[in-house]
Amino acid sequence: MKIPAGEVVPFRAGGFIQIECPPHKVSYADFDVPDEYREDCDKFNLFRYFSEVKQQTVRGYSMANYPEEHGIIMLNVRIATPPPKAADLPPGIMSSYIWSLKPGNKITISAPFGKFFAKETNAEMIFIGGGAGMATMRSHIFDQLKRLKSKRKISFWYGARSKRELFYVEDFHQLAADNENFTWHVALSDAIPEDNWQGYTGFIHNVLYENYLKDHPAPEDCEFYMCGPPVINAAVLRCLKI
Known about the structure:
This protein is of the alpha/beta class. The protein has two domains: about 100 residues, Beta Barrel (Elongation Factor Tu (Ef-tu), domain 3), CATH 2.40.30; about 120 residues, Rossmann fold (3-Layer(aba) Sandwich), CATH 3.40.50. Helix content is about 25%, strand content about 20%. It is globular, with a radius of gyration of 19 Å.
């Protein structure tokens, strides 16, 4: 989203904004979905959903941009459909609202908020993410390498189900090419044949442990930053306690 001319959001990497969702009605059938994703929407019958909000609601979203990306706020919003075992529940209020927005629509936000900030040390940084947790990871890593010109050893481990769920790929490839102290790694847990995937497979916490932490000389000296779905966060915490 674009920030109005003359307005500034003085945020730190890892911060978040709050978005106001006004009373409204949304039909998923009206979503403007790119052709490459329409097949999946049809497969899971997403266009049957309808969202109605009767009173103003506020939700927080982490920013994917870093402080020197001026004039914009980048968000990674994963639409929250009802869980398989509770299909009668309504879809997520705020994600439905955000996905219904069209270019030129105006929204109300408040910012900045947050306390998930990087420590100012020289310790190695290990970022672990999945899903929309990419937003916070991108903000932190770009801030370290592009704004702060950090020389700390930094690695990013990201988990997805298939290649279709990957984004910012070229951005991170370029960061790795420009910064010898940075590497990034992707693991797919449910790659499909057309992915032709030759990289890591499995869950990202297992991949991180087996391919890096297991033989790390001093993992206790590293700083770990993670953001992702609850199941990934819980698995990473269990892994780090080994």
